[in-house]
Amino acid sequence: MENEIFLFPGKAPGSEKVHMEEIIFEEPWEHTYKRVIKGVTAPSLIPFIPEKPNGAAVIVIPGGAYRRQVFNLEGTDIAEWLNSFGVTAFVLKHRMPGDGHEQALDVPLQDGQRAVRLVRSMASQYGINPAKVGVMGFSAGGHLASALGTCYDRTIYEPIDSVDQISAKPDFLVLCYPCISLRGWNTNDGRDRSTPIMEVLKKYSTDELVTKDTPTSFIMVADDDTITPAEHSVNFYLALRKARVPAELHAYRAGQHGFGMGTTKGPVQSWTAACRSWLETVIEIA
Predict the structure, then answer these.
(1) Are 110 and 12 in contact (CB under 8 A)?
(2) CA–CA separation, 92 vs 42, rounded Å?
(3) Residue 273 contacts by C-beta under 8 Å, 6 or more apart in sequence?
(4) By three-state DSSP, how is residue 182 classified?
(5) Are 63 and 70 in contact (CB under 8 A)?
(6) Residues 116, 152: contact at Cβ < 8 Å?
(7) Tell me: the pLDDT tens digits for 49-84?
(8) Residues 213, 246 contacting (CB under 8 angstroms)
(9) Beta-carbon count within 10 A of 259 CB
(10) What pLDDT sits at residue 286?
(11) CATH match for 5-10+23-282 among 1.10.287.500, 3.30.70.100, 3.10.100.10, 3.40.50.1820
């Protein structure tokens, strides 16, 4: 990809023995399409720079059930929208837990921590205020964003260089129809609990990891979402509320799951306006 910034010098930790081909393909989805990425072994950031940067940065994490990533609707399209009001964006292409990496359940979080640190290390280069670096995730990407907000201080890979001395704590979270924990599902629904996302959720149930130090959060979900039910978002919001962390929750009447920037109809079409308003308050821009 053009302007790709690789997270690690050389092989990513625990991926030295993994040999697979990264593939990108497109598949139809409603009135548009999904651009899908699978088989990542060299995690990276794709930068999107606005014409007039305001100093804030957001790392965008597309979803895909921890099997793949939907890189346009929940990634590049989101980055371009953030650019439209001055936010510098970086789309995260991370490794998947089911692809044979060592510490398999940790690799998304390893890549996420490194991404936050790397963006802060490049703050002067991109005109970023290192105290205004947030993460924004969709579905499984929302889980990773919530894990970064609750597990930012866990040592899950050996420090490699000076970048790893920088804080991995995001300054704010945007969670879009996020997966949060196994508590958000009916455990008698016949769902396969051995899939990569279920295994990650068993280890990182982030609603149970919230503390007073978890970053302020914006959470968005549709009430009719049957893929990641609204209970996930509600449980994380209630955990933030209990910890007295400022948060905003939007549960839209309809919209289902996975729409990202791919829908312009129905109740969820207002989510971007609500999110922009919240972001502008958090990052203190006009």
Answers:
(1) yes
(2) 11
(3) none
(4) helix
(5) yes
(6) yes
(7) 999 999 999 999 999 999 999 999 999 999 999 999
(8) no
(9) 23
(10) 41
(11) 3.40.50.1820
Q: Which two tokens stand for residue 17?
A: 């023995």
Question: Can you give the residue ranges of every domain in the chain?
Answer: 5-10+23-282
Retrieve residue 238's tokens: 């209630």
> What type of residue sits at position 270?
S
Beta bridge partners of 251: 221
Q: What is the dihedral angle through the alpha carbons of 11, 69, 88, 268, rounded to the nearest 10 degrees?
A: -160
Other beta carbons within 10 angstroms of residue 213's beta carbon come to 12
What gap in Å lies between CA 114 and CA 226, rounded to an integer? 32
pLDDT at 117 over 80: yes
Q: Using CA atoms, how far apart are residues 159 and 165, in angstroms rounded to an integer?
A: 8
Give bridge partners of residue 27 from the DSSP assignment: 34
Q: pTM for the whole thing?
A: 0.95
Is the Cβ–Cβ distance between 28 and 9 less than 8 Å?
A: no
CB 249 within 8 A of CB 233: yes
**Distance of alpha carbon 35 from its chain centroid, rounded?**
17
d(CA 104, CA 123): 30
7 neighbors 118 (Cβ within 8 angstroms): yes
The contacts of residue 176 (CB under 8 Å, 6+ apart) are 74, 136, 137, 138, 139, 142, 220, 221, 260, 271
155 contact partners, CB below 8 Å, separation of at least 6: none
17-32 average pLDDT score:
92
Dihedral (C-alpha) 179, 43, 261, 55: value to the nearest 10 degrees?
A: 100
Task: Enumerate the β-bridge partners of residue 48.
Answer: 89
Q: Are the C-beta atoms of 96 and 196 separated by less than 8 Å?
A: yes
CB-side neighbour CA atoms (13 Å) of 221: 26
